[in-house]
Amino acid sequence: MDDEIALARAITDEQLVLHYQPIIALDTGRPVGAEALVRWHRPGHGMQAPDRFIPMAEESGLIVDLGRWVLHQACRDAAGWPHQAPIMADASVSVNVSARQLTHPRFLADLQTALAETGLAPERLILEITETALISEPEAAMETLHAVRACGVQLALDDFGTGYSSLSYVQKLPATILKIDKSFVDPISGPGAGTALSEVVVKLAEAIGMRTVAEGVESPEQATALRLLGCHRGQGYTWSRPVPNAELREVAMRLA
Ligand code: G
Ligand code: G
Ligand code: MN
Ligand code: NA
């Protein structure tokens, strides 16, 4: 309970901060976007990673307010990228959205407010959703996802392969991007080595017309192997850790 009160306060008292992890086009090796990942500068506790407080936020319902803050801040930061570095002019920003946030009655209004107030082009925003998140209220979620697409915002299916949803359900989702979970990338040691599962996922995505982003890419060998499989984009420590918005320009210039 004390933790909940502290988190509620963190949202209003500007203790939350977004870090950004660049997403790289595997064919050119250049950054084309970044994923927003929230951190909590909790007084007396140092910097808290999201797995320390997102589950609590989901259980308590605070995720609705927290998610609204994240969405707004991410749109505001991304609206400023074209002025930070020319290479970031068209870069997209990916924002994680929890089920409870997505199915909240105010979600669409909040999304439209964030876009209108920050001036971010809807095409530059990608919402990341997980399979497990969609299972609790599949119909409500599906309706909202179609409305999100109608706004011009893109959708990515996060952590693909770790959930329980059927392929037919995945195919029905109006998502255009599939994020290949790190657990499929980990076994890759080079082209053709340990690539069996990631190859299946890339082929599956191709078959249903989705673009792919590999997560947790930690070596140049993995990046090469994924590019040769036809994976479009990658994200991981081999390029950059998540960094504060103010450092994104420097990272983007290094990768350009
Ligand atoms: O940043 P880190 O690598 O520790 O992220 C851990 C987990 O927290 C990831 O699964 C990510 O999806 C989740 N996460 C990070 N930021 C957000 C956020 O703003 N909202 C939600 N719902 N989840 C987030
Ligand atoms: O939203 P999602 O669950 O995909 O969040 C991505 C998580 O993976 C974040 O916690 C991020 O900090 C982490 N991450 C990103 N790149 C790497 C990587 O190359 N290696 C490892 N171990 N973790 C990573
Ligand atoms: Mn994600
Ligand atoms: Na993921």
Automatic annotation (TrEMBL):
Protein origin, superkingdom: Bacteria
Segments forming domain EAL: 1-256
Protein name: EAL domain-containing protein
Classification of source organism: Bacteria, Bacillati, Actinomycetota, Actinomycetes, Micromonosporales
